[in-house]
Amino acid sequence: MVAVSFTDTSLLNEIDEDVVIRFPIRPHTFKRGKVRLMSVDAFEKALDPGRLSILKLIAFGVSRPPVIRQKLKLPKSTLYKHISVLTRYGWIERGEFGLVFSAPVYLVYEVEDGGPGSLSIRLVNGKGAFVDEKTGFIIINGVRPIPNCLKCPMLKQCTQHVKLLANTFNVTLRSGTPAEAYIEVLTWVTSKNLAKILNSIYLDLSLR
Question: Which residues, including other chains, have CB under 8 Å from residue 145's CB and lie 6 or more apart?
């Protein structure tokens, strides 16, 4: 039996790092039509500053490793190590034009062993990512709003972008800041879609 439950937000309130990271994105930089489910560990692999820099360039359309290396001035071994990690943990893959994001939506889960024949998949509502041509590449990590959100010079632009994102998923926003709104959209996508996904498709498990 696989039970699907959702993380108690009171636990998430203990998270110290509250991050909403948004980069503009160019066309042809992500695979469409699927949702990528990833573990907390896999999700957090992208939060390394070097890997975030690589993801930012991919979002901008700089997708070939030699060009990324030139832009970031990284040693070849360091660059390919970062790319290997991002690929292995499900963030990116190779596409026709170079490296691309693996999916337009990334959801994060934890697995608990409930005993023989029983697993619990618990979604982490405050972590995840979106890739969208209108709103850009957005990584969400944490559930509390960013304290300076209302003072940010990007407030108007972020507000417009998160409204577009909410419209994409038919979410009625109730949040007071863009940071809260991004998390609200992510929580809605998480809670409404995972059970449907698991009930409608098959899963491949490695026997290695």
Answer: 18, 175, 176, 177, 179, 180, 183
The secondary element (H helix, E strand) that includes residue 93 is strand 92-95
Of 144, 148, 150, 153, nearest in space to 184 by CA: 144
Residue 13 near residue 128, CB atoms below 8 Å? no
Contacts with 49 (C-beta within 8 Å, 6 or more apart), sequence order? none
pLDDT digits (tens, 9 = 90+) for 162-174: 888 888 888 888 8
Please tell me the total number of residues recorded for the chain in this structure. Answer: 208
Write the burial class of residue 132 (CB in 10 Å: 0-12 exposed, 13-18 middle, 19+ buried). middle
The 10s digit of each residue's pLDDT in 56-103 is 899 888 889 999 999 999 999 999 999 999 999 999 999 888 999 998
